[in-house]
Amino acid sequence: MVRPWMVWGMLVVATGAGAAKREPVEGYWLGTTGNEKERIEVGFEIRRDADGKAVMKITQPNMGYYGVDTGETTIRGDRVQNATFMLDLRAKGDALEGTFPGPRAQARLRRVDALPQPPALPDVPTGPAPRWQTRLSGQAYASPAVADGVAYLGTTGGVFNAVKTADGAIAWTFAAGGPIYGTAAIDGDAVYFVSDTGFLYKLARANGEQRWRYDLGDRATPRTLPHPSAGDWDWQAPRPLVADGVVYVGAGDGGFHAVDAASGTRKWRFAAHGRIRTGAALDGRRVVFGSADHVVYALDRADGREAWRFDSKAEIDGAPLVHDGHVFVGNRGPGLYSLAAATGKEEWRLFFWGSWVESTPLIDDGVLYIGSSDLGHVSAIDPANGHVRWRGNAWGWTFGTPLLTADRVYAGAAGGAPYFIRHDAGFVSFDRKSGKLLTRWPIADGGGHQWGIAGSPVRSGDLAIVATIAGSMLAFPLED
């Protein structure tokens, strides 16, 4: 996934003649960067090659970068600059100081003889084995939706499944006739989901009987699934939102629909300017959602009129969270935002160091918990100001929303290869207070580009129900 502020594997450019004389910025440097919200360890190797070209490689352990080429770099005496990484540093003796990434982050480094090397996977307990596993058709990118001892999940094989969480037995199935990428919504005796057939479906929870289907009008919307050489991954679909007898749902053509839940007829449609692959959230009389056009929209629930919009500067693929007068939403660029729910005005922003933020956050007991993407961490954040309390390394892509228990935070992680950062799949748990990794159940490489868990773990009694990209549903016992 190509990040807006990062390009790797590029040829460096000539910035001066010869490399016979060592310049003040050349060498190994290690220190910290960041601001009052968070500081991280970072290191650089800066040098000229035999042809006099400037070379800079970054080591940033929190992102899994170890000697990654930063691309086009300029060295001018005691100053080194890299526009792609938003870096501008000057050497002052054995100190290297300046801004990275961007003017808000102050970097301070010292000369060292060597930089950190990639660590081995942590030696922690695996935790309890799955109580059961049920194999389904196709791949599963969505999260299970659970109610009354049944987990509902669709797959790319075009089948929507109802699975009993007690033993993994399949209660019923429904053939949608096209891939299902989105998480279902449960409301009363009905379950709702969208399919790449271009329809929103309403089924009876008891037996899977179709009650109605609504035409979203986006059957021609193409997808690019995760691939080693593709940068614009498009593997999600919106989760319907049901409230007060209305279903709110986006579509791949940019349409956002309000549908009567009883009859399946349209109440109104709003046109965004990019695909909508994420769910929505309610804020009183408004409904809030994001789009690939970079914009967070707030619409009047009665008629779909726009109340406000906010340009997040990057594609939005995670559903927003509305909490206590604030909208929290991530994107594929600047990171995680807090917006004023009444106006859409930015309150604070937290950078995720180049990682996309695909995860939908949750807030409990005054702490915001969220996954990420390339960062591979689960984060605990102060929702009042965006200050990081802890980040726990899951060792893989953490696209989903964490699951909380009294003392632990559970998360699914996806692995992938080939990729410029190592990602290993697993089901992990952290100490809720400190972020210490407590358990990690590894999920083996399935042979494709991605494997592991793309969605969120969901609780059913004493079990965490998860779905694997390979197309299985598993039930892990929770330890608290």
Strand-helix topology:
Elements: E1 27-34, E2 39-48, E3 54-60, E4 65-69, E5 74-76, E6 79-82, E7 87-92, E8 95-99, E9 106-112, E10 132-135, E11 145-147, E12 150-154, E13 159-164, E14 170-175, E15 185-187, E16 190-194, E17 199-204, E18 210-215, E19 241-243, E20 246-250, E21 255-260, E22 266-271, E23 281-283, E24 286-290, E25 295-300, E26 306-311, E27 321-323, E28 326-330, E29 336-340, E30 346-350, E31 362-364, E32 367-370, E33 377-381, E34 388-393, E35 403-404, E36 408-416, E37 426-431, E38 437-442, E39 450-452, E40 458-460, E41 463-467, E42 472-477
Antiparallel strand pairs: 1-2, 1-9, 2-3, 3-4, 5-6, 6-7, 7-8, 8-9, 10-42, 11-12, 12-13, 13-14, 15-16, 16-17, 17-18, 19-20, 20-21, 21-22, 23-24, 24-25, 25-26, 27-28, 28-29, 29-30, 31-32, 32-33, 33-34, 35-36, 36-37, 36-39, 37-38, 40-41, 41-42
